[in-house]
Structures are given as structure tokens and as C-alpha cells.
Write a structure and sequence with these properties.
31% of the residues lie in helices and 28% in strands. The protein contains 4 helices and 6 strands; from the N terminus they run H-E-E-E-H-E-E-H-H-E. Strands 1-2-3-6-5-4 form a 6-stranded antiparallel barrel.
Length: 167
């Protein structure tokens, strides 16, 4: 009976360590070269900033959910259009959940160490690839074609004929 109590106390202490560690990470959101700041939108459309693990693999940018608290991951699944905040401002990306062989490759290239796995309570890892979104180009009015009359009704002069003898 005494051994069961000791195991119970050790288990409770471990759970408290994991909760404390995860809470501190969530509160302080430490940043370094291995992290980036993303902006997601919750179900009400409110923007939320979060520091996440940055992984580069095969010329693509990935982010990883390495902890139990992962509200940002649910937000990304619900609304995959996110922003990455950097020194140059915000950049738009489309988040794509990663599974299968791509997941296995990126996970193998960026393994988590045993200490961080222990401190986080061995959560399942989730990866998201960030595909850049081309910025929207505003439509510009096009100039009328030479054969079309200009807005004032005048017909533009014909273009000069090209000289086929030069070349």
C-alpha cells in the first residue's frame, strides 16, 4: 500500500511539473532563432499572436505544435490563412497540415530531445507547412487599345509600319 502511495505522489508531482512548465512557456512565450510569431484568427475573427517553433526543411517553412496547449493549431485548421510577423512586417501564408511521409521526414530532421519531451508530458507532435501567399495586386485600368477611340472620342493615330528590310 505504501508503494502505491509513493507512485501516486510521484505521478502527481510529475503532472504538476508538466502543468507548471507548459504554463510558463505559454505565459512568457520565449523567442529565439528557432521560433517565429504567427497571427491566427479565432472563431470570432479576433487576431491572436503566438510564438511557435520554426522548422526549415527542403526549402519549405514549417511550424510545430510541440505542447499540450495548442489553441493556435485548432485556429489554423479552422482558418488556414495566417500571418508571420517579422522585422520587415507581416507576411501572408497558407497553413497546410503535414502528415505521412512529409511529416516523418521533417520530424526526423528536427527531433525533440528527451528532456523537452519529458517536461511537456509527451504530447503528440503536429506539423504545419506554411506556403507563401502571393500579395494581391490591385487592378489598374488598362490604356485603350490603339484601334479603340479614347474617352474623348478621338481616334489615336495609327502605329507606324515596321520596316521588314531591317533586321
Amino acid at each position: 500500500m505504501k508503494a502505491i502511495k509513493i507512485v501516486g505522489y510521484v505521478l502527481v508531482a510529475y503532472v504538476l511539473v508538466v502543468v507548471l512548465f507548459e504554463s510558463l512557456i505559454g505565459y512568457f512565450q520565449p523567442q529565439n532563432q528557432g521560433t517565429i510569431v504567427i497571427v491566427t484568427k479565432d472563431s470570432n475573427g479576433a487576431a491572436k499572436q503566438r510564438v511557435v517553433a520554426r522548422l526549415d526543411s527542403g526549402g519549405a517553412l514549417y511550424i510545430a505544435a510541440n505542447h499540450w496547449p495548442r489553441g493556435w493549431y485548432s485556429q489554423v485548421l479552422a482558418n488556414p490563412d495566417i500571418k508571420v510577423v517579422g522585422a520587415g512586417g507581416e507576411t501572408d501564408y497558407r497553413a497546410v497540415p503535414v502528415t505521412g511521409a512529409e511529416f516523418d521526414r521533417v520530424d526526423a530532421e528536427h527531433p525533440l530531445g528527451p528532456v523537452i519531451r519529458f517536461l511537456t508530458g509527451y504530447p503528440p507532435r503536429r506539423l504545419v507547412r506554411l506556403d507563401p501567399v502571393a500579395p494581391a495586386v490591385p487592378a489598374t485600368p488598362s490604356a485603350p487599345a490603339p484601334s479603340e477611340p479614347s474617352p474623348d472620342g478621338a481616334t489615336p493615330p495609327a502605329a507606324p509600319a515596321s520596316d521588314a528590310s531591317t533586321g
